[in-house]
Specification:
Layout: H1 27-33, H2 41-47, E1 54-58, E2 71-72, E3 79-82, H3 92-95, E4 99-101, H4 109-116, E5 124-127, H5 134-140, E6 148-152, H6 156-169, E7 174-177, H7 181-185, E8 191-197, H8 210-215, H9 218-235, E9 239-249, H10 258-267, E10 270-272, E11 284-287, E12 294-298, E13 308-315, H11 333-339, E14 349-352, E15 358-361, H12 366-373, E16 378-380, E17 383-389, E18 392-395, H13 397-401, E19 411-414, H14 416-423, E20 436-442, E21 445-452, E22 457-459
Parallel strand pairs: 5-6, 5-8, 6-7, 8-9, 19-20
Antiparallel strand pairs: 1-3, 1-4, 2-3, 7-16, 9-13, 10-13, 11-12, 12-13, 14-15, 15-17, 17-18, 20-21, 21-22
Length: 471
């Protein structure tokens, strides 16, 4: 997989895209699916002979236009199908966070949330199995700034990829953690919404990921089902009474899908949260066998997308306000004036993070940070700002990509070719400018920082963000 091309579905990385004509879908899986509502074996197998489609979701604030020749994804207001798959690594505005490459079926949570959530401000949301970041960036674009999204990934290597994608998206109210689900269980009744795109057997990815087919077995389905139950049991206490749980997989197996919905209803106080789905979308509405809970299935012969399953459940009971423990203020007032020219003119709190670096959080999240510092391992808190160095402020790369940066920061508009040179950390020929910090901007979207020394520029793109692909 080329660095910088994100994929999304319950913890599986997508590898080289191939046609499924070389595949032999297990007969035992097909037998399972014979009992599933809407399954058409002949059409299903035929769909796996066709190439997978490519889709993206545009950032709502960074101003990128819908790609030429694209078609809208019907259940996502910012989603588009592309006519072909470009080389995303060589597109500068991809690195600027102008859009996110996401499989279209997994954009459906936006439709569920828009229908089921009646307010967007003041919410606390957890995306529990968040890497590489598709659903987190989707939810972040919906929330008000006083809401808080925790994007969590327990596997540290994948958490690094998640953190990078969250940085590209640029929202200060999206924090990144790396914790086991049981760590959240101690936060009783804290979250209004929890999304669990659970690790699964991956049969919905057969068309895009041949390794998923090689690894599939009935035994693995059983193991995944047991793991999914453990994950849900560990995190369920953190959901507020009246709160919403979205449970999703990229598996076709009922043992990981409808049967898990029934298990939740049997084990906890959970009720259905149904939404109407237009017939022409091709989404199959199935129901769990014991409780009749509505579930939503995506088959590649019926939708323009890959295999996906999702259900929405609401925790029954009257919601109560979460009680934060008493804590001291975290503000670093003296630095606020130093960073003021870099940020939009609104109330913010500057807090220390690590190694002399600082971050900005919204005032509404100060109590949350105090709470998390005693409960969770946070990889990213708010918006990284950088640190003071040598009498000036050394800005963080994440600040350049942020939607909260000041529009008054000086910038240098560059061509796509120059932008790729910047992203490769090559020398690019630019006219001299007065000493100071400048945003590198391509097509109106910021990529990172240059520092003018008068007669030359220093490129402050972090080494691990550098692209190495030619072309």
């Amino acid at each position: 997989m080329t660095r910088g091309q994100p994929a999304d579905c319950g913890g599986l990385f997508l590898r080289k895209q191939v046609l499924a004509s070389a595949f032999h879908i297990p007969e035992s899986l097909l037998t399972q699916l014979d009992k599933v509502s809407g399954f058409d074996k002949v059409a299903f197998l035929a769909a796996h002979e066709a190439p997978a489609v490519t889709s993206v979701r545009l950032h709502p604030l960074k101003g990128a236009a819908a790609p030429q020749g694209s078609e809208p994804v019907p259940w996502c207001t910012s989603g588009y199908y592309l006519p072909s798959r470009p080389v995303f690594t060589l597109d500068p505005i991809f690195h600027a966070g102008a859009y996110y490459v996401q499989e279209a079926s997994s954009m459906f949570p936006e439709y569920l949330l828009r229908y089921l959530v009646d307010k967007w401000d003041g919410l606390r949301v957890l995306d529990l199995c968040a890497a590489p970041g598709g659903k987190s960036t989707l939810v972040a674009a919906l929330l008000g700034e006083n809401s808080l999204l925790v994007a969590n990934e327990v596997i540290r290597s994948r958490a690094a990829i998640l953190e990078e994608n969250i940085a590209r998206w640029g929202y200060a109210n999206t924090w990144v953690s790396s914790n086991d689900p049981r760590d959240f269980g101690a936060l009783h009744g804290y979250f209004d919404i929890i999304i669990v795109d659970a690790p699964c057997s991956g049969s919905g990815l057969f068309r895009k990921d041949p390794a998923a087919l090689e690894e599939w077995s009935e035994n693995n389905v059983t193991l995944c089902s047991q793991r999914q139950q453990r994950i849900l049991a560990d995190v369920w206490p953190a959901l507020k009474e009246g709160g919403l749980m979205l449970y999703a997989t990229c598996s076709y197996s009922p043992q990981e899908d409808e049967e898990i919905a029934d298990w939740l209803a049997d084990t906890f106080e959970a009720g259905a949260a149904a939404v109407p789905v237009p017939n022409d979308w091709g989404i199959v509405v199935s129901h769990s066998p014991r409780h009749g809970l509505p579930c939503y299935r995506f088959f590649p012969d019926k939708v323009k997308g890959e295999g996906f399953f999702i259900t929405a459940l609401r925790k029954t009971g009257e919601p109560a306000a979460f009680r934060y423990p008493k804590s001291k203020a975290l503000r670093t007032a003296g630095l606020r004036e130093q960073v003021r020219p870099l940020l939009m003119d609104r109330e913010q709190v500057v807090v220390p993070v690590a190694d002399g670096h600082y971050a900005m959080i919204h005032p509404a999240h100060e109590a949350d940070l105090n709470l998390f510092q005693s409960q969770l391992f946070l990889r990213r808190t708010g918006l990284p700002l950088g640190k003071p160095a040598g009498g000036e402020w050394l800005p963080a790369h994440e600040l350049a990509l942020s939607v909260d940066k000041s529009p008054e920061i000086p910038s240098i508009e560059v061509s796509r070719e120059e932008a790729l040179g910047f992203l490769r950390k090559e020398e690019i020929a630019l006219a001299p400018r007065p000493r100071g910090w400048y945003l590198v901007v391509c097509e109106g979207i910021a990529l990172g920082w240059l520092k003018s020394l008068g007669n030359r520029y220093n490129n402050y793109l972090p080494k691990h963000w550098r692209i190495r692909m030619g072309g």
